[in-house]
């Protein structure tokens, strides 16, 4: 075989090998992700109850879903949790990033401490905070034993305040990750621009307000996308911390979906709620991906 033929054969296999390696993963993703999305979509228009029923029922499952008081409560809880979770995580993450960006000596020790909670699963986080906030086991009992008998912190069992315990636990776990995103953004800002602003007499507050924070817009957007996605699909943290209670005071769309699909034998309604969640996440992520791809094409 000529050298030209050997080169052509080698080039052919170099082109084919990556496709062969990726093909099994692509097929599995196509079946287990997109295949089940399509199946869930079909079930959401069916008469399924305890088991799948492939007889179509039109939009009745969606009508039942939106007429359900439990679904409305879940959406209200998601709005409260999502807004507070995103705003507090971004504010706290930015503040911590600004503090660490001052080149303090113990930065190398503080960063792992702030990032460590993100290494834990939400089940572990929920369980730990459940013990800590339990009036009979954690903070309230400790304060009473220390002599502060009037201290009371019963948010975990208070229907009006329980949703805020989910916010506390979620912020504790995720704010360090958001801090790392902002810190990377701060370290990427052109130092010459900041030096020029200092020479022009700009104060630290003016530099952050007029130069630094506006340049962190892509980081804010990325943090929003990640946090909104995590808020919408919150399940394990809620189940571990409150179980959706007391009553349904901390029910979320994800807990609603699981309950109606596997406990209440209303699989079509549960599937409809899953599709609504998927559409909500897609409505957040698709415009972001579109803008990112559009920017890359213009570069």
Automatic annotation (TrEMBL):
<feature type="domain" description="ABC transmembrane type-1">
    <location>
        <begin position="75"/>
        <end position="290"/>
    </location>
</feature>
<feature type="transmembrane region" description="Helical">
    <location>
        <begin position="78"/>
        <end position="101"/>
    </location>
</feature>
<keyword id="KW-0813">Transport</keyword>
<protein>
    <submittedName>
        <fullName>Sugar ABC transporter permease</fullName>
    </submittedName>
</protein>
<feature type="transmembrane region" description="Helical">
    <location>
        <begin position="267"/>
        <end position="290"/>
    </location>
</feature>
<keyword id="KW-1003">Cell membrane</keyword>
<keyword id="KW-0472">Membrane</keyword>
<feature type="transmembrane region" description="Helical">
    <location>
        <begin position="216"/>
        <end position="232"/>
    </location>
</feature>
<dbReference type="InterPro" id="IPR000515">
    <property type="entry name" value="MetI-like"/>
</dbReference>
<feature type="transmembrane region" description="Helical">
    <location>
        <begin position="113"/>
        <end position="133"/>
    </location>
</feature>
<keyword id="KW-1133">Transmembrane helix</keyword>
<feature type="transmembrane region" description="Helical">
    <location>
        <begin position="161"/>
        <end position="186"/>
    </location>
</feature>
<dbReference type="Pfam" id="PF00528">
    <property type="entry name" value="BPD_transp_1"/>
</dbReference>
<comment type="similarity">
    <text>Belongs to the binding-protein-dependent transport system permease family.</text>
</comment>
<keyword id="KW-0812">Transmembrane</keyword>
<dbReference type="InterPro" id="IPR035906">
    <property type="entry name" value="MetI-like_sf"/>
</dbReference>
<feature type="transmembrane region" description="Helical">
    <location>
        <begin position="21"/>
        <end position="45"/>
    </location>
</feature>
<dbReference type="InterPro" id="IPR051393">
    <property type="entry name" value="ABC_transporter_permease"/>
</dbReference>
